[in-house]
Specification:
- The structure is a homohexamer.
- Chain A has about 260 residues and is α/β, with parallel strands linked by helices.
- Chain A has a single domain, classed as Rossmann fold (3-Layer(aba) Sandwich).
- The first copy, chain A, has eight helices and five strands, in the order αβαβααβαβααβα.
- Chain A has a four-stranded parallel β-sheet, sandwiched between helices.
- In chain A, strand 3, helix 5 and strand 4 form a beta-alpha-beta unit.
- In chain A, helix 2 packs across helix 7 (about 175-185) and helix 4 crosses helix 5.
- Chain A starts with 10 loop residues before the first helix and ends with a helix.
- At the A-B interface, helix 1 and helix 4 of A face helix 1 and helix 4 of B.
- Strand 5 of chain B pairs antiparallel with strand 4 (about 145-150) of chain C.
Chain lengths: ~260, ~260, ~260, ~260, ~260, ~260
C-alpha cells in the first residue's frame, strides 16, 4: 500500500494519518471526453490525478479517487457533446458527487480538502457542490476547501517557454500543447504523437448556439494544434504545477 | 493504448470499435469503503473493474472507468457509515451517475451495456438509474443493459471449495474470504495478510436500527474472518467469474 | 375509535398516548402490485399493516396508515413492471414519503418508530428515506427507527414446518406459500384458492436485464407455487411474527 | 373480492375490467391531520375514499388506494403544522406520488382517471403532479384526468339545508359540519359527538404568517363549530356528492 | 437612487437601511401571462410590484425586484397554458426561487419580509418555498414572513362599490374589472380600453380536466368582462390596498 | 404598449408578432448583487436588459422580462456572498428558470431565442438550463438558442479606447469601468460618481477557498477602480454592443 492514493490504503491507515498528521486530501475531478485522435478519453481524470499526486507527494498529502465523469462538453472548450466517446453527466449529478464527498471528508475529520479540477466545464458545478456541502456542514465546521483548475498555476514565464509563438489562451487548449505535453510526461504510453492532427486554432464567435453546431469544431476534436508538445515541456510544467500547488496548499491552510 | 480500458483509448479508436464490432461495454460500480485493516478502501471498485476486465478480455469488450464512490455503507453488509475512510454518496447522486452514463452510452451507439456492481449497497440505486435512463431513451432504443453483482456468478461447487466449512452467505462476505482472495489474485501488493483480524462472524438481528449502533460491528470493520483467503482461491474464483460473465453476456445479447 | 390504528384516533387521543406512554409507532410500507390470480393487488400493504397491527397490539403500539404504493416491481422478486395493475412509484417519491413521515413522527415526540416493510423492492429506498430524515433531524434527536422486512422474523423451525419439501428462499416467495397463507389467516375473503396457478418455481439467471424480458416470468405473475398454502400455516406464521417483532421492539428500544 | 376497491382485486380481474369496460378509476387523496377531538386523524383519506367509492359504485368504477398523507396543514384551512398527529409531506413528495401513479394508470390502459381530493392543502400539488405526468406521457396519450375537491359538487340548495344559519364558506369547514356529518354517515363509530368543542368560527386576517402563530387557531383545532352536524345531513350530502360526481364523470369522459 | 426599489439602491445604502431602520422588505411575485387583448402580459408582476411600492412608501419599506415568471396558468383562474405569450415555470422552480430569496433576506438581517402575490396560481408554491426556507433557517431565526394575495385586502364595501351589480368572485377576476382598473390607475398607457372583449362570465364545472380543454375559456382569455373598469375604481382600490397592507405589516410585525 | 418589451404587450399583439415576423426573443439574465457604493444592486439585470433592448430595437426583436436574481456571487468576479444586499439563488433554481422559460418560448412558436447574460456567475447554469430544455424538446424542435455574455462583443479596438492604460480583463470588471460607463449611458440617475472608491485592482490567488475569505475582497466590493468611467465610453460601448449583437443574431439565425 502506498501512502499517496487513498483507494490503496486501508481505512485504519487512512484514519491514523488523518488523526496524527492532519494531511491535505486532494480530490481530482476529470472527465471522459474526446481529446483528439492522439490522447485518450480519460485525459482529464488522468492529468488531474497525476498533478494532484505530484503535489501531494511533496507535502504528505493523500489523493482520493478521481471523479472520472465530468460535466457535458462544450464546443468552445471541449468540442461538444456530439463526439462519440465523450461520456458526461448532468449538472445535478456532478454537484451531488462533490457535495456528498466533501461532506464525507468532513465527517472523517479532514480539515484541508483540495479539489483539483482538470476539465474546464466542471468548474461551476464543483463550486456549487462545495457551496452546498459547506451549507450542510454549517458555520463552525473545521473543514476548508480549496478549489482550482490546475493549469492556473502555470506562470507567465512557463507559458512563454511552452508557447514560443505566443499562448493562444486556455480556451483552445483542449487536447493541445499543454495536455499533450503533460501526458507525454506522465503517461507517454497513452499518447500517439503520429496521430496529432494539423487542425489549426478553432475560431469561435462571441456566443454559443444550442443545439450545438458540429461544424464549429474540427472533426478531429482538437481545438488548436498539439504539434508543439513534447515530454520536456511536460516535465517543466508538471514540476511547476506540483511545486506551486503544494506551496499554495501549505500557505493557505497554515494561514487558516 | 490497450484495447480494454475505455479511458486509455482515443475517441477515434473507441468510435471505430463501436461502429464495427458492436462490443459490450462494461461499467464497474464500486465504493470507497472500509474493508478491514488488511484490504484497501478502494476494494469494491478495484474488484468490480478487475472482474469486468477479465470478462471483457474474453469477448473483446471495453471497460469504462469505474464509478469509484458508492452508496452509503450499511452495518450488516459493509460495517456502516461510522467508519473513517468510508466515503459514500446519497441515493440521488448514484442514481444520477448511472442514469447519465447509460444515456451517454446509448448516444454512442452502444447496444450492449453491462453494469458490474461490486458494492452490495449499490444494487437498488443502480437499478433505479438504469430504469430512469431507459425511460429517458424511450421504447425502441437499441441499448440493452445487463446488471449484476459479480459474486452471483460463483457456482455452488466453487463456494463449497472456497468455504470447506460452509458458506456463511454473501451478507457477511465483507472484507472476508471472497474479497480477500480475489484481491490476492488481482492486487496482492495491496493486501496485508498479517493484519487480518480474528473477528468471528458478526451476528445481526433481523432488523436495522437508525441511527446505526456501532457496537453491532466489530471495530475492525470485518464481518466474518478472512483467514481462509488465499491467492489460489482467488484465481479459481476470478477465472470462473470471468468465464461465466463473458458467457452470460454473449448469450443474453445474442438472443436479443 | 380503536387504540391501534392511528388514522381512526383523534389527534387528542394520539397526543395523549405519545405524551404518557411513549408507545412504538409502526409504519407499514406496502405496494400495489400483481400477486397472481389468487391474491389481491394490495397484498403487500394489507400484510405489512396486519403484521404491524398484530405486533402493536401486544405492546400497546400504534399503527400509522400504510404507504400503499411501493417501488417499481422487479422480475425476480415481484414479476416486473409489465403487469397491468402493478402501480409503482419512483425511488425519489418513496424516499421522500419515508423521509417526510419520519420527520413528522419525530416532531410529534415519537421516540420509537418501526418501519415494517412488506414489499421486497422497497427496502433500500426506505433505508435512504430514514437516513435522510435522521440527517435532517441532526444528532441528538430522540427518535430511533427500526426497519425490517417482516418475513425475516420467521424462524428456521417455522420455515421447515411451512415448507416440508424445503424452503425455496424469499426471492421466489412472491404470491407464494408465505403470502398466501398469511392472507388466508388475515383476509381469507380476498383469497381465491381455486385460481392458484401451477407455475413451478421461476428460474432466473444471475443477472438482470433492462428493458425487462417478460418471458422470464410466468404469465400468471407467480414466481413459485402457492399450492402448499393454508390458513393454519398462516396462523402459525402470523403468531410468530407478531411475537418476535413485538419482542424485538421492546428489547431494542429499552436498551436505548 | 369486491368490485370497487382496486387493492382487493387480483391483477387479472383488474386487467380484464380495464380491457373490457374501460372503467373510470378513482384516486382519493387525503391527509393524516388533526380534525378536532371528535374526528379521527384519517378523516380526509376516509372521506375522499368513501365519496369516491359511492360515486364509483354508480358507474362501475374502481377505487385505487387513497394517498393517505397530504401536504402540510395550514392554519387557515387545517389548523397548521404545530398539531401533534398531523403528519404531512413536502410538496415534492406529493407531486411525485401523483405524477408516478398517473403515469402508471396510463400504462395500464386506463383512459378515465378521477382524482378525488379530500384535503384542501393538496389541491395545487395534485395539479402539478398531474401536469408533469401528462407532460411525461406526451401529447396523444389516451388518458384523461379529472381533478376535484369533492365538496365543490354540493349544490347551493344543499348548503342552505345543511347550514340554516348561512354557510360560513369552505375555508372554515375543517372538522366542522360537513366533515362531521359525512363521517356520521360513513363511519359513525369513529365520531365522538360528545367531544365536539364549542370553538366559534376562527377569524383570520387577510394574510398568512411564517412561522405560523398557534394563537390564530383554537387549541382544539376546530375552525368552526361542528355542533350542527348530524347523520341525516351526512346522508343528504353523500347522496348528492355521489350522484353529481358520477354524472360529471360519465358526461365529461363521454364527451371526450 | 430612490428609497423604495431595492434594485436601484447601492448595497451600502441598503445595508444601512437594514441596520438602522429594520424596514419591511416587500417581495412581489407575478407572472407573464395572457390578460386579454387589453392588458399586457406582465400585468401580475406590474400590479404586485405597484401595490407593494404603494404600501412600502407609507411605512418606509423597500421593494425587491418582482419574480416576473409565475406558476402555470390554469383555465379557471388564468385561462390556461394553451395561450401564446403565457410563460410559466414549474412548481419546483417557483418553490426554489422563493426559498432561496427568503434565505438571502434572512442573511441580510431582514426581520420583516412581505411576499405580495399577484398571480392566483402562485399561492401554494410560494407557501412551500417560504416553509422550506424557514426549515433551512431553523427555529430561532429572526426573520418573519407575511404572505398575501393583495386583493384579499379589499373590503366588502369597496367590492360593492366596484361591482354595483354584485361581485362575481376572485376566481373569474382575471383581466377583468379589478386588474383593469388597477392598471388604469398605475399604468394607463398599457391599457387598451378599446379592445376589451364582450366575453361574459365564464362558466366552469366543479372539476378540472387534464389535458385542459381550450373550449372552456373564451378565445380572448378574459374570464369575465372588464367593461366596468375605470381609473377611479383603480385609485380607490389602490389606495385601500396600500393603506390596509401597510397597516397589517406594521401591526403584525410590531406584535412579534 | 411599446413594441420591444414583452411584458408591456398584450398576448394578442405578441402572438401576432410571432406568427407573422418570427422575431428574435431576447431573455436577459441578471442578478441582484452588490456593485460597490456607486452602482445599484440591480446593475446586472438593468444592463443585460438595456443591451438586449438596444439590440432588439435594431432588428424588431422582443425583450422578455429579465431574470432578476442570479447565481451566488463569487469573490473573484462579484465580491462574494458575504455582502449585504447580494441576493442569489442556487444552481438548481437558475437552471430551472432557464429550462422552463426556454420550453415556454418554444411552445409559443419562437424559433430564435437569445439569452443575454449580464452576471458572470450565471454562465454555466444558463448553459445547463438551455441544454435540459433542448433535451425536453427533443430533436426536431424548431427553436434555436443563442447564449452570450454581452461584454464578449466588445472589440479589441474599443477595449483599447476604454482602457488607455490597458484592459485588466473581465475578471476584475465588476462595478468597474465597463459597467459604470454603461450605467452612465443607460441609467445615469442611478450612478453616484462621487462615491466611486479608490480600491485598486484586487489581486487573487490561482485558487478559490471555501468558506470564502472576505479579506480577499475590498470592503467596498469593487474589484478594480471605476475612476476611468464616463458616459461617452458608455455610449461607445452600448452602440457597439447593440450593433454587434444585432448583427450576430441576424447572421446566425439566417444561416439556420
Amino acid at each position: 500500500m502506498n501512502t499517496v492514493n487513498m483507494n490503496t490504503m486501508s481505512w485504519v491507515a487512512y484514519r491514523d494519518r488523518i488523526a496524527t498528521a492532519n494531511p491535505p486530501i486532494f480530490l481530482p475531478v476529470g472527465a471522459l471526453e474526446q481529446h483528439g485522435p492522439h490522447l485518450p478519453l480519460g485525459t482529464d481524470a488522468l492529468l488531474s490525478a497525476a498533478v494532484a499526486a505530484s503535489a501531494a507527494e511533496q507535502i504528505d498529502g493523500i489523493v482520493a479517487p478521481a471523479l472520472s465523469y465530468g460535466y457535458k462538453s462544450q464546443p468552445k472548450c471541449g468540442g461538444g457533446q456530439h463526439f462519440c466517446g465523450t461520456t458526461s453527466v448532468d449538472a445535478q449529478t456532478l454537484i451531488g458527487l462533490v457535495r456528498d464527498t466533501v461532506r464525507e471528508f468532513a465527517r472523517h475529520g479532514v480539515e484541508k480538502l483540495v479539489v483539483v479540477n482538470g476539465h474546464y466545464e466542471n468548474q461551476w458545478f464543483i463550486t456549487e457542490g462545495i457551496d452546498l456541502a459547506m451549507r450542510d456542514l454549517q458555520p463552525g465546521a473545521k473543514i476548508q476547501v480549496m478549489r482550482m483548475e490546475y493549469w492556473d498555476f502555470l506562470t507567465a514565464a512557463t507559458l512563454r517557454a511552452v508557447f514560443p509563438d505566443g499562448f493562444p489562451g486556455y480556451a483552445l487548449e483542449h487536447a493541445a500543447v499543454i495536455e499533450t505535453s503533460l501526458m507525454l510526461h506522465y503517461h507517454p504510453e497513452l499518447v500517439r504523437l503520429d496521430l496529432i492532427p494539423d487542425d489549426g486554432p478553432a475560431n469561435f464567435p462571441a456566443y454559443d448556439i444550442y443545439p450545438a453546431d458540429p461544424d464549429w469544431v474540427p472533426p478531429s476534436g482538437v481545438l488548436s494544434s498539439a504539434r508543439g508538445a513534447d515530454a520536456v515541456k511536460g516535465e517543466i510544467m508538471a514540476t511547476e504545477l506540483a511545486a506551486c500547488i503544494a506551496k499554495a496548499v501549505m500557505t493557505e491552510f497554515e494561514r487558516a
